[in-house]
């Protein structure tokens, strides 16, 4: 998609692409993405307040992006977020627009998957982790459970971590002691503090963290070795997780592709067991 046809959020993300940002600068970038519609009209002080950083940090952020100060960055933001011709996704009623927005999220995800090699490497990394802990708290818990339900059919030991509290750290340590080498984490807005704490604890335990999150500048990027972004829909009362769910199943496909013989054997064993117990009608 060219710049003129891209959504404002995508054009902002392109602005940060390839730039090495500090954790503080990533907070500012994430704030601007979250405020994409209004970002170009915020003062440096307003951005600082929204991001929870100092005003000089906003100035340094602008300079890191190649501008001589925040006013120059704000002019660039106005260029990037200016709207041209009417977007077909803006047509229809509110419910239709929400669905069109999800279609756009899936289109962007499809573009990211052009680098099939990266996903293949993630699949190998997760397939080799025995056990494989899968983290998802609060709104991300259903995604973790959905992924784990199917992953358990092709992986010998999948452990869902969907409860917070002090026991979560215990379960991460237990997984590492049992031989786990990687953690798959679903990190979605509003980014529970416990989730980010768990990512830090996982890394301290020696696990390689793979995070499926909503943005390449989300808080998860500070704590994960591998970040796989998939945007969430924000046009309804509660977020839509269509793209993250799709990405989760793409990652599972990569795990299957990494161990084809084992995958086939386990699937055949499950089908045989299911037929013997008459689990399904069809």
TrEMBL record:
SUPFAM superfamilies: Homeodomain-like, SIS domain
PROSITE patterns associated with the record: HTH_RPIR
Gene Ontology molecular function, alphabetical: carbohydrate derivative binding; DNA binding; DNA-binding transcription factor activity
Coiled-coil intervals, chain numbering: none
Gene Ontology annotations of biological process type: carbohydrate derivative metabolic process
Residue ranges occupied by any HTH rpiR-type domain in the UniProt entry: 8-84
Protein name: Transcriptional regulator, RpiR family
Species this protein is from: Micromonospora chaiyaphumensis
Lineage: Bacteria, Bacillati, Actinomycetota, Actinomycetes, Micromonosporales
């Amino acid at each position: 998609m060219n710049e003129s046809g891209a959504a404002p959020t995508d054009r902002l993300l392109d602005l940060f692409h390839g730039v090495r940002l500090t954790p503080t600068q990533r907070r500012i970038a994430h704030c601007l993405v979250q405020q994409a519609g209004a970002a170009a009209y915020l003062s440096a002080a307003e951005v600082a307040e929204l991001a929870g950083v100092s005003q000089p940090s906003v100035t340094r952020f602008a300079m890191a992006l190649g501008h001589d100060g925040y006013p120059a960055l704000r002019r660039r933001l106005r260029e990037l977020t200016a709207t041209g011709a009417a977007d077909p996704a803006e047509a229809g009623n509110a419910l239709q627009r929400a669905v069109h927005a999800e279609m756009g999220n899936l289109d962007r995800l499809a573009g990211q998957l052009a680098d099939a090699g990266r996903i293949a490497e993630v699949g190998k990394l997760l397939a080799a982790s025995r056990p494989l802990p899968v983290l998802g708290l609060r709104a991300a818990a259903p995604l973790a459970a959905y992924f784990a339900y199917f992953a358990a059919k092709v992986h010998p030991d999948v452990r869902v971590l969907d409860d917070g509290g002090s026991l979560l750290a215990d379960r991460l340590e237990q997984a590492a002691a049992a031989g786990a080498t990687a953690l798959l984490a679903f990190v979605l807005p509003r980014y529970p503090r416990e989730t980010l704490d768990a990512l830090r604890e996982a890394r301290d335990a020696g696990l390689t963290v793979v995070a499926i999150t909503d943005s390449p500048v989300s808080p998860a990027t500070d704590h994960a070795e591998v970040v796989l972004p998939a945007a969430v829909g924000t046009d309804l009362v509660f977020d839509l997780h269509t793209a993250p769910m799709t990405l989760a199943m793409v990652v599972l496909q990569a795990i299957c592709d990494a161990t084809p013989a084992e995958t086939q054997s386990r699937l055949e064993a499950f089908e045989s067991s299911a037929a013997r117990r008459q689990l399904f009608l069809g």
